[in-house]
Amino acid sequence: MADKHPASRYDATMENSLGQSLDTLLRQARLRIDPVDAEWLLAHALGRPRSWVYAHGDDVIDPASRARYETLVERRAAGEPVAYLTGTRGFWTLELQVTPDTLIPRVETELLVELALARLPKDSAWCVADLGTGSGAVALALASERPLARVLATDASAQALVVARNNADAAGVRNVTFSSGDWCRALGDERFDLIVSNPPYLATDDPHRGIGDLRFEPESALYSGIDGLDAIRTIVRDSRAHLLPGGWLLLEHGCDQGGAVRDLLHAAGFEKVATQRDLEQRERVSLGRAWR
Questions:
Q1: pLDDT tens digit sequence for 167-185
Q2: Are 103 and 252 in contact (CB under 8 A)?
Q3: Residue 64 dihedral angles phi and psi, to the nearest 5°
Q4: pTM for the complete prediction?
Q5: Can you tell me the distance from the alpha carbon of 217 to that of 42, in angstroms, rounded to the nearest whole number?
Q6: Is there a single domain that holds both residue 50 and residue 104?
Q7: Which residue of 31, 173, 198, 223 has the fewest C-beta atoms within 10 A of its own C-beta?
């Protein structure tokens, strides 16, 4: 039986004429990739907002834009994430640069931001650390919402920190500084009112490994030991020395890890330990407060 979506050449399914309309091009691309992805990539190839594409479906695409789009569709059909193809991903109120050196920000992580903001006074210069900042998504979201706060964004990847700094500059966020290092080692002898982290929490043998976007994202930002908790253990163990009395530690984790993370927080002497669920009612963020 013939393959429904032949992968040899994208233009094998297309008309040879260079006078195709946007609607025609989209119909053909939707046979190979997710329809929403097809729309985002066409908008990117044209340098236009997605809404513009909807309103100009009868427009004829120029050869250069068509060639760009064909290449993007080929790469997406091979599995490359849309965020890496366009170089951007929206998170919170920000449009962030992302590269294969950074994890792609996900909407689930906005819960971590919400819970941190609920504990960050608007009128105080609290000190905040974001461990493993990647693209800077969490650090910049917090800093943009709390301009009096002083936020330190850390990462062990020098390449990721370059992306995070670029995002801070592009967003005009000035109350963020950056430090290179592995988890709490990047904090020196500083102490904070609040520490947040979205660390790697997938097990090394996770069944989703090698599937979808995970194939292209940095493994160091995804996988953390046999049970996925190695990084979280390290952060829980070391963060107490970097929290002020009454300071909070907030950790994103996998939906089946809430109980284990709560146990780690209790064992380390944190109080008010709890886990919050995301919009799909999955345990997503656990937190605890250092003794006063």
A1: 999 999 999 999 999 999 9
A2: no
A3: -65, -40
A4: 0.88
A5: 23
A6: no
A7: 31
